[in-house]
Input
Amino acid sequence: MAEPLVRIKNLFKVFGDNPESVIPMVEAGQSKDEILAATGHTLGLQNINLDINKGEIFVIMGLSGSGKSTLIRHFNRLIDPTQGHIFVDGVDVMKFSARELQDFRRHKMSMVFQRFGLLPHHSVLENVGYGLSIQGLSKDKVKEKAMHWLDAVGLGGYEDQYPSQLSGGQQQRVGLARALCTDAEILLMDEAFSALDPLIRREMQDQLISLQHKLHKTIIFITHDLDEALRLGDKIAILRDGKLIQVGNPEDILLHPADDYVEAFVHDVNRTKVLTAAHVVNKTLLTLTGRTSPQQALEKIRERHADYACVLDGKSLKGIITLGEAERALSEGAGYIADYVSNVNCVPDSAELEALLPRLLVGKDDQPIGVTNEEGEFTGMVSRRRMAEFVS
Amino acid sequence: MAGESWLTEFPKMSREGLLAIRKSLDATYRDFSREYGESIETIFDPLLTFLIWFEKLLLNTPWPLIIIAITALAYFASRSWKLSLGVIVSFLLIGYFGMWEDTMRTLSIITVCTMLSIALGIPVGIMMARSDRVQSTVTPMLDIMQTMPAFVYLIPVVMLLGIGRIPGVIAVVIYAIPPVIRLTNLGIRLVDREVLEAATSYGASPTQRLMGVQLPLAMPTIMAGINQTIMMSLAMVVIASMIGVKGLGQPVLKSITNQYFTLGLFNGLAIVALAIIFDRVSQAYAKRTQKHMEGTDHG
Output
């Protein structure tokens, strides 16, 4: 395993007059409420450990008050931890001098804010170029780059407007362009799309995904919206009362919630929108080729108590042969089963279940659907029964 | 009963004691002013020179030129023909009723006082915004400056520097500077936290944050403070005239002591006219330059 790009180690954050004095209590395992009652200090984050790999979208999700906004501000030290370490590229960010920290913020990380955080007295173009202009780059250079990123987020032509003249979605695009303009490797997004209405939010998520396909940034994304987390995240960390409860990929979270809290969270999620064919595909299937004899086919199907078998042609799916058809082939005395194979629909494994579901339901009888990978190779089948296990 | 007199009559200090305090304080201050009065006066010499130069400039320039200059200033600040026309009419009336010279004197002292208040007040306001400790020490001082009757702090200033323009300027600045300090502090503290965080997260240095984010965003509030400061220094010209500041205040003072109602009214109205012009022009300017900052929320 390669070294993670960002690593947070044993991080604690206590708010109050004398935060250090409370650390022993935290370490002794007292709860947030007990500490608040005894000392008047608020425990913001406790013992956070995170590894974030290069190029992934890492979503930190939690409800309000869970400490997620506090946590993301630790990455670029807008908030300093009470105790703990933050490593970026193996360097301890906590050891930076004021000057080094300033440089680090200028070149390594950029941030997108929930309420956009645009400078109202600067034009859109100046806002996008803000990061570069405070680095002291020449005006022409800043303008050129800012124009490029403004175009990239689809706001070309708005450069002379002021933020207040734009809609919420457009303002956040400016925020995104500003973050991309400094070419920072790591993008911090603090509830970046939460203030937008659902339609625009979806649009922005799509835009972020397509930008990420091109740019391969490391994105740390904060949200309270599980749908958003599942849609964007390569990895998801769930935060509750300042503690990490579960870290895993979206399917882990959805299919194996760590505790009741996460379970309650994922309960209402529309799984058909999150899971794809790749998640539900049944790979342990009986496969035959067109040249299998009816006798053999029948035996194998009966052996497995199956209703059908897949028939492959090389690596791709030719179709299926049902038990009935195999019996007919045998009684008609055919040499091979090839002529008794019926065609089935195929979908790529990236297809969302939402799209898969109607095709399964309208198919005749219990006709399953084949699933293929990116190269068009057969990976397995999805049946109604299998689907029901996941969706319910 | 002894207890009764103790309850009805406040147990006060003896007359001798009070007298001793008065005597020693007065004597100390008198000695101090005799000792250092002149050297302190020399500190203010450049200011005095500038004041006299500026007053002479206004007095010696032909009146049509002054009206044209002020109108042009008003127009470029506000871009309003109505306001500019108002300025012309007011100044013509002021001149016609024989108050031109006094108005020019007042204008010069107000301008100097305002510039001085801004130059001192904004840095103090910035320091207050940066540190809660500075804020908690400066705030009571501002309270004193605003509520202490002007006559009370006129006494030591006059003892120290005598009668004339400089003590007048000092008295006016003491009275008029609190709003610009308070509102600079308030304006900076009210700057949207997220905007400031954004600047910090892109690696802005403290100076870049102050000049590029905090001051520009606090500007509407600071402008309101400057506006108040101008108004208060205008209100102070009458009191300042008691210690020899020439201008519209002196005829007003004269009319109080001699019961000349019309004289007082005319000069008072001239002060009002100046105040309204200053107020409208500075407000219109502030509004025009801050236009794009209004209504950030379009939903």
